[in-house]
Amino acid sequence: MGFKVGTQLHPQHTTTDELIEAARHADRMGVDSIWVWDHMFPLYGDQDDVSFECYTLLAAIAQVTEHAQLGALVAGNNYRNPELLAYMTNTIDHISHGRAVLGVGAGWCERDYNEYGYEFGDAPGRLRELRRALPLIKSRLAKVDPQPVGSIPILIGGGGEKVTLRLTAQYADMWNGGGPLDVWTRKNRILNEWCEKVGRDPKEIERTVMIQSRDLDQLPGLLEAGVTHVILEWPTPFDADPVEGLLKQARN
């Protein structure tokens, strides 16, 4: 049952040296993708402990890896001008020799917004901003100089059935949804319906899921439902065993 394997490093409660070494090790193990989240504070544990910024970390990871795709899972759309986000991702693409993915979502973490001076507003407003940003991102990627080395696929994360999945059908090359299995399956079906409505071949959108080690028992069902790229969360302290185990399953 071949499938792609990715891992999301949690950039909190650790050091940059440990993060970069974990990314290097994951790449040597043969993962297909390496991701970091885009938050200003830890999401669990001591929420006033250390945390590191997404894009500067990706630039460092790009220099010490050779094979895996690299991206934010996912960048908060409101944290950066969308054309700047495209420009930054293009630089990561050049550093990595064509391995960058532009992952983006509407944003949700109120503390990030409040403490860093962004307007949190409400979910409909943040979705309107994402709708405005996506064509700007695509336009900037088409004219940035130098042009990307790779294709820079756009990944949209989220499962909002009325807006997010419609935007995914319109603009994305990859979609990341969460479990459990019944939720991912329903969202995937709705994404296919949106593809039909907007005239998009659903096969053009790679289907990914992010799961924790405790949820690996759902893997057979997720693969049957249409997942082709499984992204395993890799919390600190970094233990490679779950990632290695998933890679063995993918290769069987």
Largest sheet: 8 strands, parallel, barrel
The whole-angstrom Rg is 17 Å
Written as H for each helix and E for each strand, in order along the chain, the element string is EHEHEEHEHHEHEHEHEH
Shape: globular
Query: What is the distance, rounded to the nearest whole angstrom, between the alpha carbons of the first and last residues?
Result: 6 Å
> Uncertain regions: pLDDT < 50 for 5+ in a row?
none
What is the count of DSSP helices, taking H or I runs of 4+ residues?
Answer: 9
E-strand count:
9
Question: What is the overall pLDDT average?
Answer: 96
Give the helix proportion (percent range): 40-55%
Q: How much beta, percentage-wise?
A: 15-25%
Described by its quaternary structure, the protein is: single chain
Largest sheet: spatial strand order: 1-2-3-5-6-7-8-9
The class by helix and strand makeup works out as alpha/beta
In a few lines, what is going on in this structure?
The protein is of the alpha/beta class and 252 residues long. It has helices at 16-29, 54-64, 82-95, 110-115, 123-143, 164-171, 181-198, 219-225, 241-251; strands at 4-9, 33-36, 69-72, 75-76, 100-105, 154-157, 174-178, 206-211, 229-234. It is 44% helix and 17% strand.
Jot down its keywords.
252 residues; alpha/beta; 8-stranded parallel barrel; 9 helices; 17% strand; globular
